[in-house]
Design brief:
Elements lengths: L1 E2 L2 E2 L8 H7 L6 E2 L6 E2 L12 E4 L2 E5 L10 E2 L6 H4 L14 H8 L7
Bound molecules: FE2/S2 (inorganic) cluster (FES).
FE2/S2 (inorganic) cluster (FES) binds next to loops.
InterPro entries: 2Fe-2S-bd_N (IPR042204), 2Fe-2S_ferredoxin-like_sf (IPR036010)
Pfam families: Fer2_4
Protein name: (2Fe-2S)-binding protein
């Protein structure tokens, strides 16, 4: 696979997100309002933190997409605006569920 032109190795059965993290890439998009970095968080398809463009398809969840030879990852600008996150995904404006979003604003999120 490639991530923004860089080769990314993947093991059989790995998700796109797991392969990126194994390659040392821990964030690949930013939130709309504050430009905060986002990558894997829940790892099970719930939080939408891991949205990424895969082979030109925007807003795929990296934790759910199986890695495969030849995939192009992160070709589009991965910001909240570019991904079109928000109401269309049933998530807050930065792609996270509302409970997590409010916890983050209160400083209670598990990661900054
Ligand atoms: S890491 Fe939460 S949906 Fe992918």
């Amino acid at each position: 696979m490639t991530f923004r032109g860089t080769d990314i190795p993947a093991e059989p059965g790995q998700s796109v997100g797991a392969a990126l993290v194994a390659a040392g890439i821990v964030d690949w998009r930013t939130t709309r309002k504050e430009g905060r970095p986002r990558g894997l968080f829940c790892g099970i398809g719930v939080c939408f933190d891991c949205l990424i463009t895969v082979d030109g398809t925007r807003a795929e969840r990296a934790c759910l997409i199986p890695a495969a030879d030849g995939m192009r990852l992160g070709d589009a600008l991965e910001t909240g605006d570019a991904l079109g996150t928000g109401d269309a995904l049933g998530a807050s404006d930065d792609g996270r569920d509302r409970a997590t979003h409010h916890a983050e604003e209160d400083g209670d999120a598990a990661h900054p």
